[in-house]
Amino acid sequence: MGGEPDGFERLWTPHRMAYIQHSSSREPLEGERDCPLCKKVADDDRAHLVVHRGEHCYVVLNLFPYNPGHLMICPYRHIGWYTEATDAERDEMGVLTQRAMRVLTRVSGTKGFNIGMNQGVTGGAGISEHLHQHVVPRWVGDANFLPIIGRTKALPELLDDTWRRVSDAFREDD
């Protein structure tokens, strides 16, 4: 069953099908009423993990981080595509991304980063309706078997502790 061997190992994850099916049938988020990234705009920064506010964009810790310090740079406006960003929003996203890299390097000694945007549901965006850029700190040896085999993510720091350290460092960077 399965045809000719092609040299690839297969990791079967049938539990992911529920996520895939739910994502494609989820109702679109309509602005502040539904969007968790819009809701952060007017709410308490600490409670909503916002570590810095700019003029057009803000920086927030990811609630489900890949690594400690996983940040997202979000415009205040509810737009879904990078092509919809104004020049000011686009420029500030870039400036805040650079700042986030400096802050995370100073706070956590990161040795590298994954930076990027997932555009559209098909592009992998969990919240495709609100543009956000990920800044994920990386260290040598930080990827291991736990997420793949044990369906477990080892995060050595609580979100509240990360929030305190990163938001303090953003203030120091002003």
Explain what this protein looks like in three dimensions.
The chain has helices at 16-25, 31-34, 36-42, 87-108, 146-150, 159-172; strands spanning 50-53, 57-61, 71-75, 112-116, 133-138. By secondary structure, it is an alpha+beta fold. Strands 1-2-3-5-4 form a five-stranded antiparallel sheet, with helices on both faces. Helix 4 (87-108) packs across helix 6. The mean pLDDT is 82. Residues 36-145 form the HIT domain. Pfam families: HIT (PF01230). Keywords: Nucleotide-binding.
Secondary-structure map with pairings?
Elements: H1 16-25, H2 31-34, H3 36-42, E1 50-53, E2 57-61, E3 71-75, H4 87-108, E4 112-116, E5 133-138, H5 146-150, H6 159-172
Antiparallel strand pairs: 1-2, 2-3, 3-5, 4-5
Helix pairs in contact: 4-6
Tell me briefly what this model is.
With 174 residues, the chain is α+β, with helices and mostly antiparallel strands. Helices cover 36% and strands 14% of the residues. It has helices at 16-25, 31-34, 36-42, 87-108, 146-150, 159-172, and strands spanning 50-53, 57-61, 71-75, 112-116, 133-138.
**Helix percent band:** 25-40%
Largest sheet geometry: 5 strands, antiparallel
Oligomer: single chain
Kindly provide the radius of gyration, computed on alpha-carbon positions and rounded to a whole number of angstroms: 18 Å
Provide the low-confidence segments as ranges.
none
Overall strand count: 5
Q: Order of strands in the sheet with the most strands?
A: 1-2-3-5-4
User: Which word captures the global form?
Assistant: globular
Please provide the ordered H/E string of secondary-structure elements.
Answer: HHHEEEHEEHH
Q: How widely separated are the two ends?
A: 61 Å
**Average pLDDT rating:** 82
Tally of contiguous helical segments: 6
Share in β-strands: 5-15%
**Class by alpha and beta content:** alpha+beta
GO molecular function: catalytic activity; nucleotide binding
Active site: 132
Pfam family, one: HIT
Keywords: Nucleotide-binding
